[in-house]
Amino acid sequence: MREIYTGKTKDVFLRDDGYVLLRFKDTVTGVGDTVDSGANEVIGEVAGKGRSSFNLTLRFFELLHEAGIPTHFVGIGPDVNTIIAKRARSFRLEVVCRAKAWGSFVRRYGNHVREGDPLPSLVEFTLKDDERGDPLITEDALVALDIVSREAIDYMKGTARQATALIAGHLSQRGLELIDIKYEFGEVDGRTMIIDEVSGDSMRVACQGRILLQTELAEAVLGRA
Amino acid sequence: MREIYTGKTKDVFLRDDGYVLLRFKDTVTGVGDTVDSGANEVIGEVAGKGRSSFNLTLRFFELLHEAGIPTHFVGIGPDVNTIIAKRARSFRLEVVCRAKAWGSFVRRYGNHVREGDPLPSLVEFTLKDDERGDPLITEDALVALDIVSREAIDYMKGTARQATALIAGHLSQRGLELIDIKYEFGEVDGRTMIIDEVSGDSMRVACQGRILLQTELAEAVLGRA
User: Fold this and answer.
1) Of chain B's two ends, which shows fewer C-beta atoms within 10 Å, N or C?
2) Which value does ipTM take for this structure?
3) B-chain residues within 8 Å CB-CB of A107?
4) What percent of chain B has pLDDT over 90?
């Protein structure tokens, strides 16, 4: 087994059987002292956060699979806070689905929208490119630059909306409100599907108007360990 | 007659007859010492530049009208470098049509594209918002934020491509190459159409690989005065 990717909140290893192993870390992203899953920089560690991401990914992937939405997930890994997944060719995109205006959306369009304004499950694509601040990209530009096909775009938009409705419903049953969520998609055996993780690092969730930390989200969704 | 808008390169007055008067100024936009019609800041004045913009707008609006593409243009104004136009409700958007990758497009997507790479008349929408650096916005977000309707978006995309093909052809006959061009659209008497101007301030044009200044473009298109 060898490491093939060192991420901000996750490391990825290639196993001898051809699957990959994802290990969730305790690192958190944010700006300055403020933890924010929408941010791009690692600002520290929070004990138990890797475990939260691991457990939430299991829960949310299960939810998607039950609804017939495929992911690259294969099973729980042998080491702590690890999952086994099929190897994927990542599109290097973030597919963001927004229920309410927050974060970068308000920074971009503050002339037209206020934080918390409802949005109709709006889907946006951004490139995973830290150096350029994960720039927004239009569907036409994705096709023009040969990053993904029109068919893959349609699948990603539809699937992101379907998955978001499921996850928002699951959270709502627990008195939680999904603000926004990002997915990564890739190609597995020639088929486009959700890859990577779906955890507190992927979403902003509010409880009584306050955005939860990832560990708080895990507790609220999974119950105290 | 009273001034209703002081622009970077143009002032707009409301006439007593209800039409507006657009006066083209000698101011140029750019970054640092470099004139760039794609930039957002006024960096100085170039003698004759207002006249160039005025004459080029006349030429290009004529070209559009001959092809049946409506604009808000009514006629030449009584003062130097002025045109009379119908009053419009501007959508406060820039509709950019790109024949080749340049400027902000390369800054955003430099991981996937190099300056000068061909693009298939790619249309992008940006908000006119200096404070936020004219942010890119998706078609879905334009509709979600109630900025324009889906029908207006389809009209703007189609019209921008049609106008760009005409203008690129006109330039090509003179040995010039259109790199990119931006249009402003608005509503005039309930109908969506091209408004504002179409001049050197609206486009990047290359001759033998070098981007022309607006006065050079006017000379190349209109002949020496």
Assistant:
1) C
2) 0.93
3) 132
4) 90
Q: How does pLDDT run across A192-208, given as a tens digit for each residue? A: 999 999 999 999 999 99
| Interface membership of A112 toward B (CB under 8 Å) | yes
CATH class of A89-222: alpha beta
Q: Which residues of B touch A136 (CB under 8 A)?
A: 108, 135-136, 138
CA A54 to chain centre: 12
Distance, CA of A137 to CA of B138 (rounded, Å): 8
The per-residue b/e assignment along A102-120, b for 16 or more CB within 10 angstroms, e otherwise, is bbbbbebbeebbeeebebe
Alpha helices in A9-98 (DSSP H): 49-66
> Which of helix, strand or coil describes residue B18?
coil
- Say yes or no for a CB contact (<8 Å) between B141 and A122: yes
Span(s) in chain A for CATH 3.30.470.20: 89-222
Rg (CA), chain B: 17
pLDDT at residue B225 is higher than 80: no
